[in-house]
Amino acid sequence: MTEATTPTTSxxxxxxxxxxxxxxxxxDSLPVITSFSLNVDAGEFLAILGPSGCGKSTLLxxxxxxxxxxxxxxxxxxxDTKFQTAYVFQDPHLLPWRTVLENAALPLELMGVDRAPRLxxxxxxxxxxxxxxxxxxxxAQLSGGMRMRVSLARAxxxxxxxxxxxxxxxALDEITRFRLDVSLRSLWLERGMTVIFxxxxxxxxxxxxxxxxxxxxxxxxxxxxxxxxxxxxxxxxLRVNPQLALETQALLTAMEEES
Length: 259
Ligand SMILES: Nc1ncnc2c1ncn2[C@@H]1O[C@H](COP(=O)(O)OP(=O)(O)OP(=O)(O)O)[C@@H](O)[C@H]1O
Ligand SMILES: [Mg+2]
What we know:
Blueprint: E1 17-27, E2 30-40, E3 45-49, H1 56-64, E4 71-77, E5 85-88, H2 100-110, H3 115-128, H4 144-156, E6 162-166, H5 174-191, E7 194-198, H6 202-208, E8 211-215, E9 222-227, H7 242-256
Parallel strand pairs: 3-7, 3-8, 5-6, 6-7
Antiparallel strand pairs: 1-2, 1-4, 8-9
Bound molecules: adenosine-5'-triphosphate and magnesium ion (MG).
């Protein structure tokens, strides 16, 4: 490994900076997020870990503006403009009656972009995730990993400045997951958007991110906030690198104390 460390931001920074200040959110009077504060730099790749039910998806939804905090603030800089945020769910949620190309182009259609330019952009986004060959297929004709690639292309097609991913690769086999980890990391390096990646996999968090936070089981409190000392360019060789094992161990220790 030639490069020992790591600024946490990507070189061509087009990302959004994020500030959550004393955010509180309850559901049916039960507090889920109690007083959550976090700053994320523009272009940072952050992983969020924590036990099931600790509020990770709630946090992503708060950041995306899909739900509002009861108190406290969530601010993006530059301030939220339409379509600067994209959200990738665990389930790809593709429209079965549309081809891969038409699925990937959907956000642009909702933005009112004309057919020819939107299909050209969808074509480019599908090339970025290695799916050019499958453009005219329908979702039912794809493997799970291919469907997730379409979902990723659909998120990337608007060139978001903030990409939120909620356990996107959890249901995939390990080899497919490893490939998608590498693709996502290299897309981030090329594009420089801010990425927030929720995962249950400690090794995936360490492999992908430059910074990882571990939340406590109750109240969504940050128990560990760690900069990961790993190279910027990552491929599968890193998976057997002792430095990855060290970082994984640090995250594992914090997680074990929570479960
Ligand atoms: N819309 C909702 N209505 C009621 N309760 C909710 C709602 N959304 C989340 N919760 C509750 O908030 C808590 C945190 O949920 P959240 O989905 O954020 O956890 P999580 O950390 O993402 O869990 P997992 O790792 O299992 O995905 C849970 O107790 C859940 O039941
Ligand atoms: Mg969740």
